[in-house]
Amino acid sequence: MGGAGWVYTGAAVLSGAWFLSETHRLHSRAQHENVTDKTAMKVFHGSISYLTILFLALAIDPFVGGPLL
Question: Distance between CA 40 and CA 22 in Å, rounded?
């Protein structure tokens, strides 16, 4: 865990699940139909949001609580 607390862990789990569902949705859409640039860019922007959420949680986490383990 590297000393990560509950804020980072929660943000990583929730945003990771959201990002994985978006990428899975794009992949299954690509298997069954044509994917437009708009849907691919939605996942790209989602990846930027995912990283932003992780970095913010990592910055806030030491001030809110201690490590999980």
Answer: 10
- Confidence band, pLDDT 50/70/90 cuts, at residue 1: low
Burial of 69 (0-12, 13-18, 19+ CB in 10 A): exposed
**Cα-based distances in Å from 45 to 5, 40, 48:** 26, 9, 5
Say which amino acid occupies 36.
Answer: T
- The rounded distance, in Å, linking the Cα atoms of 8 and 26 is 26
Domain boundaries, the chain: 6-62
